Amino acid sequence: MDARLISIGAASLAGLVAGGALWALSGGHAQGEAIDALDARMSQISTGARSPPQRPSDALAQILAKPLFATPAPLGEGQADVAVQVFGLVRTPVRTGALLSVGGATAEWFSVGETRNGVTLKAVSGSSAVIATPIGEREVILGASTPGSSEQAAAGAPPGFRSPPPPASAPGMPQ
């Protein structure tokens, strides 16, 4: 064997023996006993969970007394349903929605589950939309309106609706 390999092994063994001797001379055994005593004291400490309070706090009672979901007030005498008209539907993998006019206002796009002005769009099919109003849920066919909007349907297009310009070949157009 190589002399360097033998000297490295002998030096490692000599360092281990010297370290053990110095640890024993410096009171290493006493330090081990101190650690054992500290470990015994730590095991005596109670780590159990605290018991719950005997009565719930007033703040918790107030929070639990409030309803989890807000419900609309029931319709009273003289209160009418919201007028809703369906002008367009879209069903794509990216978006599902309907073009609705609520209360005769300008038509706006609603996504499924979206609520505005007391109207929630619940579902969209190929030719109709299911909406929820304060009166309840109903299905409205494309181009139709809810019963509460009969006066709006007679009036024509909602405010802000612009019809497309006539074609260039229309009669009466300047040439």
Q: What does this molecule look like?
A:
- With 175 residues, the protein is of the alpha+beta class.
- Among the domains are: 8-38; 84-155, Roll (SH3 type barrels), CATH 2.30.30.
- The chain is built from 4 helices and 7 strands.
- The chain has helices at residues 3-25, 28-43, 58-65, 150-155, and strands spanning 84-91, 96-102, 108-111, 115-116, 119-124, 128-132, 137-141.
- The protein has a 4-stranded antiparallel sheet, with no helix packed on it. Strands 1-2-3 form a 3-stranded antiparallel sheet, with no helix packed on it.
- Strand 4 and strand 5 form a beta hairpin.
- The radius of gyration is 41 Å and the shape is elongated.
Topology:
Blueprint (H helix, E strand, L loop, with lengths): L2 H23 L2 H16 L14 H8 L18 E8 L4 E7 L5 E4 L3 E2 L2 E6 L3 E5 L4 E5 L8 H6 L20
Antiparallel strand pairs: 1-2, 2-3, 4-5, 5-6, 6-7
Feature tags:
175 residues, alpha+beta, SH3 type barrels, 3-stranded antiparallel β-sheet, 7 strands
- Uncertain regions spanning at least 5 consecutive residues: 149-154
Walk across the major sheet and give the strand order.
Answer: 4-5-6-7
CATH class of the domain at 84-155: Mainly Beta
Strand content: 15-25%
Indicate the percent of residues in helices.
25-40%
And the CATH topology of the domain at 84-155?
Answer: SH3 type barrels
Radius of gyration: 41 Å
Task: Find the structural class using helix and strand composition.
Answer: alpha+beta
Shape assignment: elongated
| Main beta-sheet strand count, sense and barrel state | 4 strands, antiparallel
Mean pLDDT: 77
